[in-house]
Amino acid sequence: MYSFLLYAASVSPSPVPAADAADSAVPGFASFVATAAVVIITIFLIRDMTRRIRRVRYRGEAQALQQELVEKGKEIQPDEPGDTPAR
């Protein structure tokens, strides 16, 4: 078992030619286009998400204001038979 460990530790990897290493490190035009597409899609998704969240928040505020006005209206003019609507 020790001889296997000594052998594994002493074996060196085969050298890689410098020309192949330089060519494989260049991302290329396709990688640029793919990265740009991901960035553009992400920007549009964030804008859409922000717009939807804002819309939900405004809807909630409008409903709360409407409910508050309804409650104030009930305190000022209770609904009873014979009452005329406010103008």
UniProtKB/TrEMBL annotation:
What are the TM regions of this chain, as residue ranges? Answer: 28-46
Any signal peptide, and if so, which residues?
1-18
Give UniProt keywords alphabetically: Membrane, Signal, Transmembrane, Transmembrane helix
Q: Which protein, by its recorded name, is this?
A: Uncharacterized protein
Question: In which organism is this protein found?
Answer: Paeniglutamicibacter gangotriensis Lz1y
